[in-house]
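User: Assemble these into one structure.

Assistant: Restating your components, then the assembled model:
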Amino acid sequence: METYYHPQDLPKFEEIGEEAPELAKKFFDYYAAVFAEGELTEREKALIALAVAHTVQCPYCIDAYTQACLERGSNLAEMTEAIHVATAIRGGSSLVHGVQMRNIAKKISL
Amino acid sequence: MQQHAQPLNENLNNAEKKVPVEPFRQTLAKHGLSLTRVKTTTLQVNVGLLCNQACRHCHLEAGPKSEEVMTEETMVQVVDLAGRIPFEAIDITGGAPEMNPNLPDMIERLAALTPRLMLRSNLTALAHGERDHLIDLCKQNQVVIVASFPSLNEAQSESQRGKGVFQESIGVLRKLNSMGYGKPGSGLELNLVSNPTGAFLPSSQEQLEKRFCQVLEKKWGIVFNNLFAFANVPLGRFRHWLERSGNLEKYLQKLATSFNPCAIEGLMCRSLISVSWDGFLFDCDFNQAVDLHMGGKKTHISKLKELPEPGEPIAISYHCYTCTAGSGFT
């Protein structure tokens, strides 16, 4: 096995249900409901998913939601901005913890 | 839908035999279906493959160098047919139909013979004021304009249709609006067609229409009546690109796995005859790209005595998966 990730494995996702079908059904039903149009459009939800996929760095999700974004009418500029949102939150979440560092440093410093 | 007739054999050439999907007829059979005609209500006329654009998804490989243009003689035969047999709709396509010099005459004659005459336009063929007389003629005859407009994004649009096309298209849509096209109560219908700008399937037509409506109005003050979202057909120039870019296999598999048996009933090929630029008859415009003649027989419009009977089989091939993917192509 030259890599753990193979694009042809993505369609096998539903096979996860072979071992615990009831749980899988609940998960996939919930998943489908989450991505159906509600207060947010399917296009908006796909952009959120794309950003999250980059945060969790899941190659399967990045592949699936790049296609989903394009299929739902998003363009590369919008998709890039979505990833920047994820990047800003991810970077910001590190930086904002600097407050803790400063609190601790202040407490133990003269 | 007829369930008894046998579909015509798929005409598989050597390249198509390597297609990594189940033959379309086999998929139909698995679902207990066959693809057969119903009453023919639409006449589609391809007036030539000459086009001012060379779009990368064009299944007929139309372009500025094409010499295939419908002659006046064939146009007369089309008008004769429409005079003998009433069609609920007549759909003029190309290439860019505007580049056929006999189009104005054809529009005038056909408009008198059908309640719904449609002209497919790439929009840029109507730009620069050179064909304003044609727009006036369309207005006078209440011709429905069906315009290609794939994306709200300039880069995406132009990756499919060529440089400069986006802004020109916006300009022509504004002009059409200023003449009443797309405006409520005008009786002048303006519809948009959006094909995906790559090897992926189209969005939900309803959601895409809603978004195009909001964005076109907000950004450019443009209005239209309906938007149709169609998948790209893996034939012609689009197929060449799929092959070169290494996307062919995955795209065909995507079309085949998205097969929706419920889409069969409303397919346009069931109620349409399509005339090629040289006057031969097909079940749809896509079949023209692979010489798959109507009912499997090469028939010229001048020899057509009567319309095909309901129940007659439709010529099919693997590209038919395009029209049955998801909600279908109607």
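Residues 230 and 280 of chain B are 25 Å apart (CA to CA).
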